[in-house]
Amino acid sequence: MSLTGALSSAVSALNAQSQAISIVSDNIANASTTGYKTVTASFESLLSSAASTSAYSSGGVAVSARYNISEQGLLASSSSDTAMAIDGNGFFVVTDETGTTYYTRNGDATIDDSDGYLSVNGYYLMGWATDQDGNVTGGETAATLTKIDTASLQSVATATTTETIKANLPADAEVGDEFTTTMDVYDSLGTASNVTVTWTKTAENEWSATFSDATLASDSSVTSGTVTGSINLVFNGDGTLASTDPSPATISITGWTTGAADSTITMSLGTADTASGLTQYSSDSDDPDVELKSIDQDGVAYGSLTGVSITDGGNVTASYSNGETYVIYKVAVATFANADGLTTMSGGVYQQSTTSGTATLHESGLGGAGTIYGSKIESSTADTTEEFSTMITAQQAYSAAAQVVSTVSDMYDTLMSAVR
Predict the structure, then answer these.
(1) Distance (Å, whole) CA 240 – CA 129
(2) Which of 31, 121, 205, 249 could form a disulfide with 231 if both were Cys (CB 3.0 to 4.6 A apart)?
(3) Which CATH number fits domain 160-298: 2.60.98.20, 3.40.50.720, 2.60.120.460, 3.40.1390.10?
């Protein structure tokens, strides 16, 4: 019957538009939620049977929610050192207390004061451990993903393993002349000491380097380690280094009074037949001396953790009181064949589904993954102006459908009166 169909169609419209209003309400409520993706009401017409020119059978409307998960939000600056955002495809990987994996676009990470882990809305942020140069160790797989623990490296100290010396030994020195320079060394506990190098001209184009015992940098009167080893140097007629004995040139420091492990230090004095390190040229002076250009070593003094930040590329960087900075983790980016097919959960997280496909893990900017930017957050994709426009349209449609219900009711009353 036409009146019944009209009533049914109007009721379906009331239901559909009320759901549309609910979706708009959620979008407006989350207009300031970091990483929020809007939901759109998708309408579909219904027919109860095949229509014809002589008889029309109304069916109404059905509504479904379309989740715009892959929609890109604007990136906004953040004052937080641990905030980050993805520009492009992909999601951050997070887990809950039970180890269940979720995915999110919310990169407003904070450090949990109780255990030092990076977290997003109560979920642990996942990444790969790296060496100090930022290279992932163990492979970029799901099996090697781990919770990012900023307290894992509270302090650093590295023993000196290489001393790189660039200097000119005066060719116009007399045989038997001695000159001294000082180099810094660090033991495995990060304690600084000094070692004096004595350069002695032993013959034409030949020198020796001997080394004093190590003394504390903080108190030169205290011997901190026993140094063994000496180096014989031969120079070419053009002033370049010809050879060292031993080759490679090394010294050892044992018996550290600090309790540190024994040290073996390679003396990097330059490449043979080049002027890249040690040279022997005339000083053109009445009082020849060693011209020291630089002495560099690779040891690191003890330093305690002073801060953690996430930089571009998803590098979790730790800063220390000795001025050193190291990359300790790299944030993983997960991509999906159909990101809009993910299952939406509370808290701005998503779960993998059969529709979305399985996650593929990448480093920032690789393999089709978006690029991670530090000190940024992704804004909500909800546009309040657009949502208000949608809300007005839904309100008008709802009012019109309610008027249809009222009209059909009056028509029923007229029909019943005629029957009586």
Answers:
(1) 44
(2) 249
(3) 2.60.98.20
Rounded Cα–Cα distance for residues 129 and 392 (Å): 51
In this structure, the strands spanning 162-168 and 263-268 are parallel
Tokens 């002495």 belong to residue: 295
Q: What pLDDT digit, counting tens, does each position of 55-93 carry?
A: 666 778 989 999 999 999 999 999 999 999 999 999 999
Q: How many CB atoms lie within 10 A of CB 366?
A: 11
Q: What share of the chain is helix, strand, coil (3-state, %, to 5)?
A: 15, 45, 40
Q: Is the pTM of this model over 0.85?
A: no
pLDDT digits (tens, 9 = 90+) for 277-300: 999 999 999 999 999 999 999 999
Instruction: Give the pairing type, strands 192-203 and 206-211.
Output: antiparallel
Owner of token pair 């304690």: 191
How many angstroms separate the CA atoms of 367 and 364, rounded? 9
| Domain edges within the chain | 2-68+381-419, 75-148+331-378, 160-298
Cα R_g (the chain), whole angstroms: 37
Contact 304, 154 (CB under 8 A): yes
Residue 9 has a pLDDT of: 85
334 CB-side CA count, 13 A: 28
Determine the distance from the C-alpha atom of residue 233 to the mean position of all C-alpha atoms in its chain, rounded to a whole number.
47
- Residue position matching structure tokens 């050892």: 252
